[in-house]
Write a structure and sequence with these properties.
mainly beta, ConA-like_dom_sf
Length: about 210
C-alpha cells in the first residue's frame, strides 16, 4: 500500500478541508498528522500558543526557543514511503524562515527528509524539499526547490507531491510547478534513533521557524 500511486486530487482536497495541519499522505485514505507532538506541549510551553487559523479554524503558534522533537519511529515507518505527499497550512511570522519539519540522523548533523522555507528576496520565498541518505552523505541534500510569492504574516496552503522522478508543488490550491528529479535511494530507510523535529532541525542545524500552523 505505501508504494501505491494514489489519487492525489481527492486526497489533497480531503486534507485541505481539515486546515491547520502538517500532514503526510501515503495513499488516498490514510495520512499522518505531524502536529500530534504539539498537543502534549501546548499548555506547558509559553513558546506554543493557540492562534486563529485560516478561515477561523483553530491553529497553533510556535515561537523560537522551543524544541519540539520526538522519536521518528513513534510516528513514521522505518522504510519511508516511496510515493508520498506532504501538505501544510501555515503563516510565517517573519521573513527569517526555517525548517517546517526535519527528520534528522542520530548525530543531529544531516536532514534525511524535511521542508525548509527561506527568503529569496524580491518578495519571494523559496520552498525546498530536503532528501538525503545520511548513511552515505555527510551533508544535507536538496531534492527540489520552488520560488513562490512571499506570504509572511499571511496564511497559505501548499503541498509537495513526490511520485517517482517528479516533485510537484501545489500552492494556494493550484498546481504551481513541477521538478524532475533523481532520488537516491528511491526509498529512504531510517535508523531507530532518527528524530523528528517540528519547526527546527535540532540543536546543531538549528533553523528555528517562527510560524503558525
Amino acid at each position: 500500500m505505501i508504494n501505491q500511486v494514489f489519487d492525489y486530487r481527492n486526497t489533497i482536497k480531503r486534507i485541505h478541508q481539515k486546515c491547520s495541519k502538517l500532514v503526510f499522505l501515503f495513499n488516498s485514505e490514510s495520512d499522518i498528522d505531524l502536529l500530534v507532538p504539539l498537543k502534549s506541549l501546548l499548555n506547558e510551553r509559553v513558546e506554543l500558543y493557540k492562534a486563529k487559523g485560516l478561515d477561523g479554524f483553530p491553529a497553533v503558534g510556535i515561537k523560537r526557543g522551543v524544541e519540539i522533537v520526538v522519536p521518528y519511529r513513534q510516528y513514521l515507518p522505518r522504510k519511508f514511503f516511496r510515493n508520498f505527499a506532504f501538505t501544510a497550512v501555515i503563516r510565517p511570522d517573519d521573513r527569517q524562515g526555517g525548517y517546517l519539519f526535519a527528520v534528522v540522523n542520530p548525530l543531529d548533523t544531516v536532514v534525511d527528509l524535511g521542508v525548509v522555507l527561506e527568503s529569496a528576496g524580491d518578495s519571494q520565498t523559496n520552498i525546498t524539499l530536503l532528501y538525503t541518505d545520511s548513511n552515505k552523505e555527510a551533508d544535507t541534500k536538496a531534492l527540489a526547490s520552488f520560488l513562490v510569492p512571499e506570504f509572511t504574516k499571511d496564511w497559505a496552503k501548499f503541498a509537495l507531491e513526490v511520485q517517482e522522478d517528479n516533485v510537484v508543488l501545489y500552492f494556494r490550491c493550484i498546481r504551481f510547478a513541477t521538478r524532475q528529479v533523481k532520488r537516491k535511494p528511491v526509498q529512504l530507510v531510517m535508523d531507530d534513533a532518527h528524530k523528528l523535529y517540528i519547526a527546527s532541525a535540532g540543536p546543531i542545524l538549528k533553523g528555528e521557524f517562527e510560524v503558525s500552523v
